[in-house]
């Protein structure tokens, strides 16, 4: 089947779907599925805008609300993960995943689903070491800290994914797995994004937890976004035994959804021709959720996951074939995800703007139904209970007691990752620095422009789409950096911005070859990553 993969959407759903329709009209290529690697921006109203961690000038309504209200419907099944520029209050309603609009499915903090027999997993957010071991404690209304920590990856999601044993076809993360740049054309990457050099050379660019998942899951494809540059890599995994067949991952980072950018990729994926066209639960993933439910944490406690270190009675939460069969029996072998989308917030009305609308903590009926069906903890209900209990004795007092405590009540147990930033770049590549605009932004400030009457000044005529060849592997020549380091040899076709005789490439209209924005100052890097449309021209 044909799968379209998009990078950072930034709420430009009309642009994205119009591009797919243009692809079908002009080239008779119709994707069966669309994957989006974060920064989807499922903004329903003005309150949602206040929950996006971006400077005020980037808070625009865009077009998702039209799909939320039912005015429009996504023309192709769309599955996405969260990034670091999201309406966090909206996505928080669906910690285990769910429909944000008809035909648009969010994978949750972490999730695995199936479509036509293809197994698709993902993890939302970006990595920040100082929040990694905390629970999901944030809820609206957010403050200047929690509006950002809400989208930071937590160790419990990584731990759950590491319990999976069955093969993974496709996996998505927003930020790149750390070190993946060593398996592609690093020289070309640094030519396009020279301000990555310090972090690449110190091996601090990217997500170390995602790198660990890459080594464990060994998916056939891994897609990322976040850094707004297209980059391909091919990673050959080491085998643990002579009997194990060698595995390799084809990695692709996508550019953002803007004119002059190569933001869509079409790949052909083997699927089960006998499978239905409905999105389905993954039985092993459901079994893992049930097995790890006791580990759910909704506090700011430091919370190390169980490991074989003498401190935990149990550390292996992987599931047996019998546990998976129990899930199948619970569902009568019908894994179809119900189309139970429900409106949980007022939808933006361009004729009646409500700039003073405030976000509220909402428990989504989809999550309630999912948790009841599988006997899982409703995270938002638990957070609400914790808030009510905390208000009885003072939340500040409670937070002070929790500081420095881990899952065993001990502050001495080491973490699997350092919780300080000493090993990371002094310039955080993963976030827009809100204080770069002269201090923290007022969370009450938002803009609803561009409105339907004043749409962004671009159309599908700027589309740049590629049809992915059978192999995404970079050649051995491409995999040599400026120091002539020996990297993996794939024997496949060259990726990046180079042409290939096996690659069917649609016509590029406008823009330079590399899609550079011309912004190279490290200090302004985060703003460059989240550049506005005019900065790309």
From TrEMBL:
Extent of Polar residues compositional bias: 416-428
Classification via CDD domains: MPP_Dbr1_N
Keyword Disulfide bond among record annotations: no
Compartments in which it is found: Nucleus
Basic and acidic residues bias spans: 386-396, 486-504
Domain Lariat debranching enzyme C-terminal residues, every copy: 235-380
Annotated Gene3D superfamilies: 3.60.21.10
One annotated GO molecular function: RNA lariat debranching enzyme activity
SUPFAM superfamilies per the UniProt record, alphabetical: Metallo-dependent phosphatases
Record's compositionally biased regions (Acidic residues): 432-443
Cofactor names: Fe(2+); Mn(2+); Zn(2+)
GO cellular component, one term: nucleus
InterPro entries linked: Calcineurin-like_PHP, DBR1_C, Dbr1_N, Metallo-depent_PP-like
Record keyword DNA damage present: no
Any GO BP annotation: mRNA splicing, via spliceosome
Keywords, in A-Z order: Hydrolase, Iron, Manganese, Metal-binding, mRNA processing, Nucleus, Zinc
Residue span of region Disordered: 386-537
UniProt record similarity statement: Belongs to the lariat debranching enzyme family.
Record protein name field: DBR1 enzyme
Gene that produces this protein: Dbr1
